[in-house]
Design goal:
alpha/beta, binds zinc ion, TIM Barrel, binds L-rhamnitol, 8-stranded parallel sheet
Length: 411
């Protein structure tokens, strides 16, 4: 990096060396489910629950060996501190019934994480299962169905606790359910009351707060449940605040014109930590690969401006089966890192001062001026320091992996 670049940023009060150091510490949880279109290792049926992955690009990972092989390749091209985000349906060994998925089924993953110095996060898998009755789980009118998923969630808390303990870094257990209705409900309250009671029962398990956190993830709607989602934003926001769990914001789970970044400063004033699924909704919750667009940038900006990078669980959540899946994982994760870097290189103090002295012209001018600063030189330096290929070369390497390994899988 040219020394002029550092000097230039210094004029704005930004210490580039410090930014490089701080960025390297920010943990981003890389979701394993981009690599196999959310299929998992249970050899079960189709992906259900109002989410869908489309595309049949060759080379999809079919088991633990293939998925971790792909993950290792992807991780080589993603700078920064990483965790891996897992789902119960990535259980290994002899497949056990979903409700019973526990520590035993994630030992291989813990060994994998340990050998690579990674942290792990976890999600109970409350979709793609015959135990969803009429698309309902924790809010089902049938006690047997609710109890099944309560048990699964309690076991998921235990898996997460195990991750946190074994790996020496806090793990997140995030609960998302697809429950909802296609048409305007006859009863909105009933399912929500049952969901509340189910969550209360799950939280009767006193997990070790030193090693893990629990989050609940809301949604506006899903395919087939367009009129009513039991776990709405208001429901989970209230539940989280009252029960000392975290509210997870999935950036694809709001109305398309709603600004998710704007929610961050409000929530963090009332919650010790926050959790994210960073995604890119195209017209709806489409889970497209992250682009370095304004929506992503604003989320990163808020995390930096609010000074809450150490209080945020940043997880990625997208799945595209129509392109090389390893490349998809790398592109999205690098974009998350780039957005964080750009946010850290922004002179927020100057901007804040201008706003507080009513100089809104300066705010606008400075916001636009900052866009022309040479952040890409800092990005290349960051990649170099992290021992990661730069923009010009990583893709060729992934292409080689595609022809040498992925295409040969013959699927
Ligand atoms: C679905 C939720 C959920 C899933 C993953 C696979 O709308 O976003 O988080 O995408 O857990
Ligand atoms: Zn999500």
């Amino acid at each position: 990096m040219r020394k002029e670049v550092k000097e230039l940023y210094a004029k704005y009060g930004v210490d580039v060396n410090r930014v490089l150091r701080d960025l390297a510490k920010v943990k981003v949880s890389i979701h394993c489910w981009q690599l196999d279109d959310v299929t998992g290792f249970e050899c079960g049926g189709a992906l259900t629950g109002g989410i869908q992955s489309t595309g049949d690009y060759p080379g999809k990972a079919r088991n633990f060996t293939e998925l971790t092989q792909d993950l290792d390749v992807a991780l080589k091209y993603i700078p920064g501190s990483k965790k891996i985000n897992l789902h119960a349906l990535y259980q290994t060994g002899e497949t056990v019934d979903r409700k019973d998925v526990g520590v035993e089924q994630f030992k291989e993953w813990v060994d994998y994480a340990k050998s690579r110095g990674l942290g792990l996060d976890y999600n109970p898998t409350i979709f793609s299962s015959p135990m969803l009755k009429d698309g309902l789980s924790l809010s089902s009118p049938e006690k047997e169905v609710r109890d099944y998923w309560i048990e699964h969630c309690v076991n998921s808390l235990k898996v997460t606790e195990y991750f946190g303990r074994e790996l020496g870094q806090k793990a997140l257990c995030n609960i998302w359910i697809p429950d909802g209705l296609k048409e305007v409900p006859a009863d909105r309250m009933g399912p929500r009351k049952r969901l509340k009671e189910s969550l209360d029962k799950i939280l009767e398990y006193k997990y070790d707060k030193r090693v893990m956190d629990v989050a609940v993830e809301s949604k506006v709607f899903g395919i087939g449940v367009e009129s009513y989602t039991v776990g709405s934003n208001e429901f989970y926001l209230s539940y989280a605040m009252k029960n000392n769990v975290l509210c997870l914001l999935d950036t694809g789970h709001f109305h398309p014109t709603e600004n998710v970044a704007d929610k961050i400063s409000s929530l963090i004033l009332f919650s010790p930590r926050l959790a994210f699924h960073v995604s890119r909704p195209v017209r709806w919750d489409s889970d497209h690969v992250l682009k370095l667009n304004d929506d992503l940038q604003e989320v990163a900006d808020e995390l930096v401006k609010c000074n809450i990078l150490d209080k945020a669980y940043i997880g990625l959540d997208y799945f595209d089966g129509s392109i090389n899946r390893v490349a998809a994982l790398v592109i999205g994760a690098r974009n998350m890192e780039k957005a964080l870097l750009k946010a850290m290189l922004t002179p927020w103090n100057m901007l804040r001062e201008a706003q507080d002295s009513y100089d809104h012209t300066k705010v606008l001018a400075l916001q636009e001026e900052v866009k022309t600063l040479p952040w890409t030189e800092v990005w290349n330096e960051y990649c170099k320091k992290q021992g990661v290929e730069d923009e010009a070369t990583w893709f060729e390497k992934v292409r080689e992996y595609e022809s040498e390994v992925l295409v040969k899988r013959g699927n």
